[in-house]
Amino acid sequence: MDDFVIRAENLTKVYKMGEIEVHALRGVNVQVARGEIVSIMGPSGSGKSTLMNIIGCLDRPSSGEYILDGAHVSLLNDDQLATIRNRKVGFVFQSFNLLPRATALVNVELPLRYSGKGNGRREKALSALEAVGLADRVTHRPNELSGGQQQRVAIARALVNEPAIIMADEPTGNLDSKSGKEIMDLLLRLNSEMGTTVIIVTHANDIADQTQRIIRLRDGLVEE
Q1: Which fold has domain 4-218?
Q2: Over the stretch 78-100, which tens digit does the pLDDT of each residue have?
Q3: What's the whole-model pTM score?
Q4: Chain-centre distance of CA 87, in angstroms?
Q5: Ordered alpha helix ranges (H), 23-176
């Protein structure tokens, strides 16, 4: 098994806006080891969001090679990309993105439903909720949970498919400082105890400083 869960070589991304070409990535090289926790930082317009979208299989590079857990993502069509995204990437967003009328359990089961996994779906979702400290909140809906608890549900949902990586986009951005610390502590614990590879996109230095390594982008390139 490759020691690197992510290998990205000479990634470029060009967006065409009419006759104008915007070069969001200009030859990015990134490697992330299996079980590593890293952060991605950069000012607006640095290419940070574009890189996150490619790493998370939401988009493909214009050129270059991206290999995620052995899969050559840059060669996949849209359907194959969706399959890889569901199986190998767990997403945690700033705004939680939970179904408002569904219980915590149903929200966590969603990735298993999309991937067609029927056997043991409830048990896996319950186990994921237990792992994030919400075993006593499985029947609660989002409006019955605090912001920190909603983000824990989102993390459980990201974990339930046992993905190759968890992509966390500003995971503490909508939380107060106490809840934000609890969420960061949880991500660090999942990384250390379960060996989960975690990639955090953040503007916050205090969040980035807790990760093993910071990947800094500027003008579409990784700063050395």
Answers
A1: Rossmann fold (3.40.50)
A2: 999 999 999 999 999 999 999 99
A3: 0.92
A4: 12
A5: 48-55, 78-88, 104-114, 121-131, 147-159
